Amino acid sequence: MTTALLRAALVGLAIVSMLVERAFAEPVVRPDLADRVGGREDVTFADLVRLVVPGTAGNETMDVREIGSETAEDLEPASMATLRLTAVPVRSGGQDRMALLLDFGRGRDVVGLAILALFDVAGEPRLLDAANVASGDHTYFLDPTRLTVGIGDDLLAIGSKHANSSQGYTTVPLVLLRNDRLELVDMIFAFDERTCAYERTQRLDLQQSAQEPFSDIVATVTELTTPSGHDCGKAPVPEAGTRTITVTYRWDAGEHRYIPDSDAFDALARESEGRF
Predict the structure, then answer these.
(1) What was the pLDDT predicted at 18?
(2) Where are the extended beta strands (E) located within the chain?
(3) How far apart are CA 64 and CA 109, in angstroms?
(4) What pLDDT is recorded for position 151?
(5) Phi/psi class of residue 6: alpha, beta or left (left: φ > 0; alpha: ψ in -120 to 50)?
(6) What are the start-end ranges of the H helices in the chain?
């Protein structure tokens, strides 16, 4: 191969690598209802939404469970006009699927209403599973959204947030897509607060290791405390600092599910609740 051809080949490989990395790093799209699914002329995102919501008048109920519970709930959106759609291509059982997040914000009788729905869109669209994943007024896919944890199965990371003037509450459901079902791995709680004397934030990071049949999932919450330096009278001022809380989820072949190696996140949630 000549030098010029070799250089061209290397440039081509670099471009392909960049495109692959970008496609994985940015898999999420925010479609309109009229947008076509996967470039198809015969299927729109409105068609997928109709498989979850019977109509579009805004007063329909959806017979879906809360994530992690098989109990069916009649959930009703406050208004279809508030619907925000987010879609991501995923894998489940070795098959190409699509996950669609329908975030309605507040529901009529619930704090938040956001339906995570799994579809087969290879032929005639089929709704495979759906569940309410909201615990706050705004629900969204985290970054990274998708971890390829199994040979043919992905895990989705979702954030659901509620805030007031000085505190922010975020619940993160980790959802495994296995056998075309949404399986809850865990719900991780993060708490932010800002006072006159200090600001404290908690941020989640997810990593995975190469294991079979399912990767280990390493979740780390980093808590950062920063004093404001203001004169706040007798208000207590915590020391500046950073601490990390890490939990590793490992696949249990006998239980057929992920199991955490400690209850550190439960302890952190109880500690945070004491500061509400």
Answers:
(1) 32
(2) 62-66, 72-75, 84-92, 95-103, 114-120, 126-132, 138-148, 154-163, 167-178, 181-194, 198-208, 217-227, 241-252, 257-260
(3) 14
(4) 87
(5) alpha
(6) 3-25, 45-52, 264-273
User: Domain coordinates of the chain in residue numbers?
Assistant: 27-273
Calculate the average pLDDT of the chain: 84
Nearest Cα residue to 85 out of 131, 35, 43: 35
The confidence score (pLDDT) of residue 6 equals 34
Specify the pLDDT at position 74. Answer: 66
- Look up residue 240 and give its DSSP letter: P
pLDDT per residue as tens digits for the range 123-162: 899 999 999 999 888 999 998 899 999 989 999 999 999 8
Token pair in block for residue 59: 């007063």
CB atoms < 10 A from the CB of 191, how many? Answer: 20
Would you state the structure tokens that stand for residue 230, as one six-digit string? 């203001």
Q: Which of 10-24, 40-54, 131-145 has the lowest mean pLDDT?
A: 10-24
Task: Report yes or no: 125 and 119 within 8 Å, Cβ to Cβ.
Answer: yes
Q: CA distances (Å), 237 to each of 195, 225, 233, in order?
A: 10, 10, 10
How many residues can be counted in the chain? 276
